[in-house]
Amino acid sequence: MISDPGGPAPCEVRVDAGLGLVEFNWTGPVNLGTVLAAYDRAAAHPDWRPNFNRLSVYADDLPGSDLDFDTVQSIRQGLDAWQATNAPGQHVRAASVVASPFNGVLAAVWQALSRDSDGVTVEVFRSRGAALDWLVAGSSDTPVRS
User: Fold this and answer.
1) In a domain, 144, yes or no
2) Number of independent structural domains in the chain
3) How does pLDDT run across 13-61, given as a tens digit for each residue?
4) Domain range enclosing 72
5) Is residue 67 included in any domain, yes or no?
6) CA distances in angstroms from 87 to 73, 79, 129, 144, listed in the order given
7) Which residues contact 80 (CB under 8 A, 6 or more apart)?
């Protein structure tokens, strides 16, 4: 786990080399700056590898409900650029875990926008366990679809 000095970060980042994944646990604002900072923290971890899959778990009560289509689209574009720079030529799986209906709608938008990304396959889940199964074992658990 990586932690930031100077106060809590909006996202806890864990790198699990054994499972070959990075887990992002979001409890604070989600925007392009916070997402790129979290990804940079993951990439700075000594165990991180460019081919690691990604698991993002979003708290139901995220502060700041200013996420909209344009913000989600800017995050997707920013992560595409990040992926091209930090993990060129890699294709990873990314699971988003959401429980609230609002976050579920945004996750569905995220999934739709990600279909055009060459470096990532995105699925949305209601539980962390189902997401981990899909990421690690390639299970056939049915992701949330809109």
Assistant:
1) no
2) 1
3) 999 999 999 999 998 888 899 999 999 999 999 999 999 999 999 887 7
4) 11-137
5) yes
6) 20, 11, 26, 27
7) 117, 119
